[in-house]
Amino acid sequence: METIHWEAHGQALKKNYIYRTFLVKFVHDKLPVGKTIARYKDTYDHRCPSCYEDQEDRTHFLRCPHPDRTKWHLKLATAIRKRCENLPTRPYLMEILIAGLVHWFQDTTFPQDDYPAQYHDLIDQQEHLGWNQLFLGRFSTLWGDLQNSHLRHSPTTAGTQSGTSWILSMILTIWTEVQQQWAVRNAVNHGDTDATSLGAKFSQVLRETEALYNLKPTTLPSNHYIFYPSLAIHQATITTYTGLRAWVDNWRPVFLRSVKDAAEQGVTHQQAIEQYFPPAEDTTQEDPPD
Ligand SMILES: [Zn+2]
Asked: Which domain, by its residues, includes 85?
């Protein structure tokens, strides 16, 4: 049974020219959220830039519980309310729409019994589709049907409005807010103050350092002296951002070359022996360069 109002969805995607690229990525789940970018490069941060939850995905982008990010729940509800005030809107539709989004944000059950029985089919159907689908412009067809029957009893619109045009307006309102929320999320990610900017740079260089330590077993044994005995010791020894950055930038090309050489020279046998007879004491290695 077809229950999504695809006509309004299609019109919305065609209509929104300014943010079209963003919206197409958003709807098709291709936004560069943490989980997605971490797949391109393992040193990219997979976490939410606001609350550091692991594997930030599209759902988390919308539902992040950080106080700076939940401000948009009210902002979104206000935008919908304002838009509905300027359109002939069946009053309960606006209430159900806002309540559905709020309950999804808070992960709570929709209180169906708070609404008259004639809206229960709509609530059931949208619940079945998922309230989160509203963000993607996927409204149940019943929104359109109920709005149409409201318009038939509203002589002021003179046929310029329809259930489809109402859903379209709601989708565009939601998408404008989603786009703005993406800008809020990115401002956090790129560091909007000096302190947060340095924090982000620190995290990045530590991830790159860790990635190089992960390469250690595949580098030439003659390069192992460059590493500290462990990543923890490395971090405890080089404590400034510039120091950490210099180590990574200085040694990364050497290590990448070393991995290639080790593979060509077939030193895997030697590594196997090393693993079989591990050095008695890591700390007997030469002093690593700083
Ligand atoms: Zn978050």
From this structure: 6-190
